[in-house]
Amino acid sequence: MKTRQNWSLCITAAVTAGLMAFGLIGSAVAAERVQISGLTWPGYGFWDIAIAKKLAPDLDISYQQIEDPYESFNLMTADKMDVVSSTAEFAPVGVERGMPIKFVAFANLSYGTDKIVGGPDIKVAKDLSGKEVAVLEGGLAQIFVAMWLEQNGVPYDSVKYRNIIADDAFAALVGGGVAASEFWEPYGSNVLKALPGSSVLAQSREPYWLKRAVVADGLYMSDNFLTKRRDTARKTLKAMYDAIAWWKKNPAEGNQIIADSMKMSLDDVELVLGKDGSGVDGGLYVYDFMEAARFCGVVPGDPPFGQKNGQVVDHWNLISDWWVKFGLIKEVKAPETGVECDLHRELYESGYRG
User: What is the reported pLDDT for 30?
Assistant: First the structure.
């Protein structure tokens, strides 16, 4: 018996020494770091939920709030950022500039959170001819305004676009410096309260915009992340969809997590995301895994709002056409130069459904 005890102690000591040598005892196995950035925006708060609820325990996810998207993409180009949550129009510009990035997911769709607001003297599109409109040039706001003008028979270049960010655009419209502006929430609602006679000229919940999926957010990954760390890229995408699925079941707690992490009021988060997890009681419709995979065209079925399977191709071409008109890019390139949908296919083929 004594010999057995000694032998057992020897084995235990040997195994323990081996595990310690590999760092498996005394400290947890190091999780793989994933660096993610994006705006201070509730639509990107699902990363905060993934972190708070430990939905990807083998990943060390870090979400950094960076208000200038170009800074995020420059960091990605320098291989100092793996993932960027941003608006869905940048990929053609990134390709034009030789940035090693790919658009990998259609993340959410503006469902009323974006509005074109006119001053007291502006009631219809033609009232803006020859006047100044505040937009973020090179962003979705500019395309939204341009498409709306042409939809209403007014040439997109009949107005002067002033490159002003949202809070400054608020002051410019209230102060009479511009005739109209494109706003996202809470700026749109606030300017309507602050400026008597102002009105909503167009808003993204209208079927025309929902079907075309114009005003939306997307998810970008670096080429290095997609090629050299493919398994981690897949796990990262899954973590986002797991967080979305968790939020749909726990919207109150999820919204509070986002509010705390983003240092926003709960009211502002609920204004954007809604309160019941349905995606249609707020200003932003969040795509789950299957909806995003259908938009990419890698699983059967159609996305919501009358969109079609594989619409990511049409979206790429639509955005690229406008950037050619505005002189931001020289030509419309093939979608595969900037779009990577195979992560969704791989997750689906593994049995994942979100």
Answer: 83
- Cα(48)–Cα(41) distance, integer angstroms: 11
- 267 class by beta-carbon count within 10 Å (0-12 exposed, 13-18 middle, 19+ buried): exposed
pLDDT given at position 186:
87
Question: Strands across the sheet with 216-222, in order?
Answer: 59-65, 32-38, 83-87, 216-222, 101-110, 284-286
**Is domain 32-109+213-349 in CATH 3.40.50.620, yes or no?**
no
Count CA within 13 A, CB hemisphere, residue 192. 14
**Containing H/E element for 84?**
strand 83-87
Structure token digits, residue 68: 């200038």
Structure-token match 């299957």, residue found: 290
Helix 251-262 / helix 230-249 crossing angle, nearest 10 deg: 120
**Taking the model in full, what pTM does it have?**
0.89
Chain centroid to CA 51:
17
Nearest-angstrom CA–CA distance, 50 and 188: 29
pLDDT score at 192? 96
- CATH class for the domain made up of 114-203: alpha beta
How far apart CA 148 and CA 132 sit, in angstroms, is 15
The alpha carbons of the chain give a radius of gyration, in whole angstroms, of 23
Residue 231 scores a pLDDT above 50: yes
